[in-house]
């Protein structure tokens, strides 16, 4: 059996106008992808500086970008320590969200009765704003750290739960039949069929959960205050606000944003690495 | 891979493999998908189930593969059914996109608790048989439609099953690839001597491939008649253009027209 017919033949070295145009457009897009947002950022910072200078806006109302940069440099020690705490809470909450969300999804998938019993409560937890639950949490949970983790977890676990549940239920029906014909047991079906099928869905939920766990951590810090456990970025923002140190507020905010971008980028990279060989979302396609 | 060659025996002398006795399948209490289907499958048979949509061909396959229980009647395997006795090829290649070609073919063994090292030789052998030994580590997305279907066939035969069920496996392929895969399927069957039940809409495919054509009618799904194609194997391109082929195709077409309620 020859496969030459199946593979088609390539005319070596011939490139037509269309192909050259497509390649050029692809090159331009690759550069524009990072260059354009950078240009917009530089323009926005320049515009911001110009507005502050031209209107002589006092720094306790709106500091210029130079003052924010100064604050970032001079307060680097304080801000880094704060970022470390916020980052730590975010990361641990995300890990717990993954364990809890994916674990619950697998449990629900294995037992329809469990799913019917508990899924509505997962939805209720998700739709109730964490800001309104957080004060209650800090009344009943003694440890501030545990309270903050719980807040961040509450916001982050649902996307993992719902996406993984959807993924586990989205198995190709012919593959499911095939597994039945070959006498697969429940564990084999889960391990070799459902979990790999659910992986792209899980990773989609994880990317959302990454951003949400940061939001949860920030909200928890604002509600918890210091309490002698060290202070995170959100608390630094609040504290600097009380002192009218607006430049430090911006500097801390920039760090929170940078942390969010880093989490999103790291999770996108993870997703790409895990799916790049087989999933449509990670495959590059010719023009 | 052990080779059974009952297909070289005349049709009436082949030992039995499987028997469907008076099988009915009724959905929702009143939709009769299959009525009173009785079919004896013998070792080495290549049986095509030919008929219009809704005639119960796929329902029959699902009942044979135990994915569905008959409402009435029985399916009995000669000597009982063991693990690995059945191979299945669906209309779609139905490969796991996250697994390589070798891992896909390993699946039936893997689910039977066998490690890759234990069965590596079998996997390589079937991939050689379908001409894909160089694509062991390729992912399904890297293969053409025809190649994916070969992987699916390799997976179906890797356990050396007693029976292979094929549910319109080539229906979604282009004519050229379909012809080629038909030829290859016959060569493969000659090499491994398996028994095949093949569901198709195509008169020409059924005549080319099978030695028994079971023509089915719809509403309710039932066996209308059985035709025998006594042209000996191997059958090649010469058979496609022979008077013998045309005569069998004419008989099958007439039976199919009757199955569809049109005058012959």
Automatic annotation (TrEMBL), chain A:
Residues 83-271 form the ABC transmembrane type-1 domain. It is found in: Cell membrane. The keyword Repeat does not apply. CDD domains: TM_PBP2. PROSITE patterns: ABC_TM1. It is a multi-pass membrane protein. InterPro entries: MetI-like (IPR000515), MetI-like_sf (IPR035906). The chain crosses the membrane at residues 34-53, 82-106, 118-141, 147-171, 192-209, 215-237, 249-275. Keywords: Cell membrane, Membrane, Transmembrane, Transmembrane helix, Transport. One of its GO terms (cellular component) is plasma membrane. Pfam families: BPD_transp_1. The keyword Transmembrane helix applies. One of its GO terms (biological process) is transmembrane transport. Belongs to the binding-protein-dependent transport system permease family. This is ABC transporter permease.
Automatic annotation (TrEMBL), chain B:
Keywords: ATP-binding, Nucleotide-binding, Transport. It holds the Pfam family ABC_tran. GO terms for molecular function: ATP binding; ATP hydrolysis activity. CDD domains: ABC_NrtD_SsuB_transporters. It comes from the Bacteria. The keyword Nucleotide-binding applies. PROSITE patterns: ABC_TRANSPORTER_1, ABC_TRANSPORTER_2. Residues 18-243 form the ABC transporter domain. InterPro entries: AAA+_ATPase (IPR003593), ABC_transporter-like_ATP-bd (IPR003439), ABC_transporter-like_CS (IPR017871), ABC_transporter_ATP-bind (IPR050166), P-loop_NTPase (IPR027417). The keyword Cell cycle does not apply. Transmembrane segments: none annotated. Belongs to the ABC transporter superfamily. This is ABC transporter ATP-binding protein. It comes from Roseicyclus persicicus.
């Amino acid at each position: 059996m020859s496969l030459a017919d199946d593979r088609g033949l390539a005319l070596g070295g011939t490139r037509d106008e269309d192909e050259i145009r497509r390649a050029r457009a692809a090159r331009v897009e690759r550069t524009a992808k990072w260059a354009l947002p950078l240009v917009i950022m530089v323009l926005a910072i320049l515009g911001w500086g110009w507005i502050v200078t031209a209107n002589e806006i006092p720094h306790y109302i709106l500091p210029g970008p130079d003052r924010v940069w100064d604050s970032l440099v001079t307060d680097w020690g304080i801000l880094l320590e704060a970022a470390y705490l916020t980052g730590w809470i975010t990361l641990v909450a995300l890990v717990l969200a993954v364990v809890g969300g994916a674990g619950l999804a697998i449990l629900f998938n294995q037992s329809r009765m469990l799913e019917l019993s508990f899924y509505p409560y997962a939805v209720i937890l998700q739709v109730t704003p964490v800001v309104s639950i957080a004060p209650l949490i800090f009344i009943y949970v003694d440890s501030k750290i545990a309270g903050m983790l719980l807040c961040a977890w509450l916001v982050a676990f649902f996307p993992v739960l719902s996406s993984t549940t959807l993924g586990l239920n989205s198995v190709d029906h012919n593959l499911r039949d095939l597994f039945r014909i070959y006498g697969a047991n429940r564990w084999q079906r889960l391990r070799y069929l459902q979990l790999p099928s659910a992986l792209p869905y899980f990773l989609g939920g994880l990317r959302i959960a990454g951003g949400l766990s940061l939001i949860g951590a920030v909200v928890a810090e604002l509600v918890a205050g210091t309490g002698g456990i060290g202070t995170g970025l959100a608390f630094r923002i609040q504290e600097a606000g009380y002192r009218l140190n607006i430049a430090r507020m911006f500097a801390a905010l920039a760090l929170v944003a940078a942390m969010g971008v880093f989490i999103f980028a790291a999770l996108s990279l993870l997703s790409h690495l895990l799916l790049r060989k087989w999933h449509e979302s990670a495959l590059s396609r010719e023009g | 891979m052990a080779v059974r060659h009952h297909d070289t025996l005349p049709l009436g002398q082949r030992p039995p493999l499987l028997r469907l006795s008076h099988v009915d399948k009724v959905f929702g209490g009143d939709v009769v998908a299959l009525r009173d289907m009785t079919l004896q499958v013998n070792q080495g048979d290549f049986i095509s189930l030919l008929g219009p949509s809704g005639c119960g061909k796929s329902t029959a396959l699902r009942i044979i593969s135990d994915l569905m229980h008959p409402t009435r009647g029985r399916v009995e395997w000669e000597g009982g059914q063991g693990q690995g006795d059945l191979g299945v090829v669906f209309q779609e290649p139905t490969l796991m996109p996250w697994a390589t070609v070798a891992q896909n073919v390993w699946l039936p063994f893997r689910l039977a608790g066998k490690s890759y090292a234990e069965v590596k030789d079998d996997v390589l052998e079937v991939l050689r048989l379908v001409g894909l030994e160089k694509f062991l580590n390729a992912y399904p997305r890297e293969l053409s439609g025809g190649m994916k279907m070969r992987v699916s066939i390799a997976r179906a035969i890797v356990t050396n099953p007693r029976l292979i069920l094929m549910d319109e496996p080539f229906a979604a392929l282009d004519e050229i690839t379909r012809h080629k895969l038909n030829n290859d399927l016959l060569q493969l069957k000659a090499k491994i001597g398996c028994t095949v039940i093949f569901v198709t809409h195509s008169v020409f495919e059924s005549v080319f491939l099978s030695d028994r054509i079971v023509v089915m009618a719809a509403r309710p799904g039932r066996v209308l008649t059985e035709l025998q194609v006594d042209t000996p194997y191997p059958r090649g391109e010469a058979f496609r253009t022979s008077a013998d082929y045309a005569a069998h195709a004419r008989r099958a077409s007439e039976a199919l027209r009757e199955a569809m309620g049109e005058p012959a």
